[in-house]
Amino acid sequence: MIFIIVLDIEIVYGFPYKEKPEDTVIYNAAAVLGPEGFIGIYKKIHLYAVDNLWSAKGDEPFMFDTKWGPISLGICYDNYQFPELVRYYVWKGSRLHLNPTFAAEEVPNEGSRYAWKRCYAPHLEYLVLTSSIFIASSNVTGWDGSLYGGGGSYVIGPKTNAFEEVEVATYIGDVDDYQNKMHICTIDLSLAVRHQCTDNPYGGGPDYRPGIYKKLFDEIG
């Protein structure tokens, strides 16, 4: 905690979590700590494949307040296959979304790196393109037991091209980077305009319409 206080930062780390030591239920979770101490725990909502063999499903989204505004959190599969979770966060005001993840590469299969990149990067870039927010993704790199983490930790976010269209910019890191390292960069959160959630000058309101989506999900839920 000393370095958190001295540096005035928040940290997020993933771990298997029990609500009580005697519990048999385990969650795939991420804890958040800040200068004032413990902030909270997010329990992964969407479990990938064999995660279901050891982990229970969480059922609550998680955001935390900072001096720069709210920051949102999803774990791995939450972010790659369920963009509606991120859109919820964006509507609630998030401009920076965190992705602690173990995105494994199928080493030593031929073409594994190409296949891994085609899975990992486009899913995160899609969130930037459709929501105009920043994504900070921290992935395992190298062997952990029988699984090989693909690395590729980076921070990506929006930039606007000459045609007023959103493009994806990499602010630090590299999808091809296997090295264990700490990335430090400065981002301008004013670029995270959350365009779906702001008023369309031609439509009189935001393009994002949660009232409509609620009706649709009530029908199937």
From TrEMBL:
<feature type="domain" description="CN hydrolase">
    <location>
        <begin position="1"/>
        <end position="191"/>
    </location>
</feature>
<dbReference type="Pfam" id="PF00795">
    <property type="entry name" value="CN_hydrolase"/>
</dbReference>
<dbReference type="InterPro" id="IPR036526">
    <property type="entry name" value="C-N_Hydrolase_sf"/>
</dbReference>
<dbReference type="InterPro" id="IPR003010">
    <property type="entry name" value="C-N_Hydrolase"/>
</dbReference>
<protein>
    <submittedName>
        <fullName>Carbon-nitrogen hydrolase family protein</fullName>
    </submittedName>
</protein>
<dbReference type="GO" id="GO:0016811">
    <property type="term" value="F:hydrolase activity, acting on carbon-nitrogen (but not peptide) bonds, in linear amides"/>
</dbReference>
<dbReference type="InterPro" id="IPR050345">
    <property type="entry name" value="Aliph_Amidase/BUP"/>
</dbReference>
<keyword id="KW-0378">Hydrolase</keyword>
